[in-house]
Design brief:
single chain, mainly alpha, about 65% helix, globular
């Protein structure tokens, strides 16, 4: 199974969008799946179901950081290089989906009772979110050359 399909499958099995992306690619970069699932858990639903930055995006940003982030405070070039890759990811995701904000992507605010109800009634988490996970995975594979 491709990593893109693996990420989508992870999401459709019940993990959060952030977990689906980060746990799929983190083992390729040296972090075990279980730890990746734990780290990325609070990022789902647009940062703890606040409807802010999409969890597929935050999961991808964590992958980018794990792959190319600096570990030395004096490594300014490493930090800037990582920011550049992150900007590239966000730009590509926005080109595909017009936003990186969960509220905008779902056209409702899941941080409210009414918005969450709308999202559930319209089955947005099963009809729209898998596409965002797929898009994030495809972009990650393009810009980081990992599969």
């Amino acid at each position: 199974m491709s990593k893109v399909k693996e990420a989508v499958s992870c999401f459709t099995e019940g993990f959060l969008c952030s977990q689906a992306i980060f746990s799929t690619y983190a083992p390729e970069i040296g972090l075990d799946r279980e730890t990746a699932l734990k780290i990325s858990c609070s990022f789902g639903g647009g940062m703890a179901r606040m409807g802010e930055t999409c969890g597929a995006v935050t999961g991808a940003l964590m992958v980018i950081g794990l792959k190319s982030g600096n570990t030395n405070v004096d490594d300014k070039q490493g930090k800037e290089r990582t920011y550049g890759v992150a900007w590239d990811f966000v730009s590509r995701f926005t080109q595909c989906n017009d936003s990186i904000k969960c509220k905008d992507l779902l056209c409702c605010d899941i941080s409210t009772t009414e918005g969450a109800k709308i999202a559930n009634e319209k089955q947005l988490f099963t009809t729209l979110c898998p596409k965002f996970v797929e898009d994030a995975a495809l972009i990650i594979e393009q810009i980081l050359d990992i599969k």
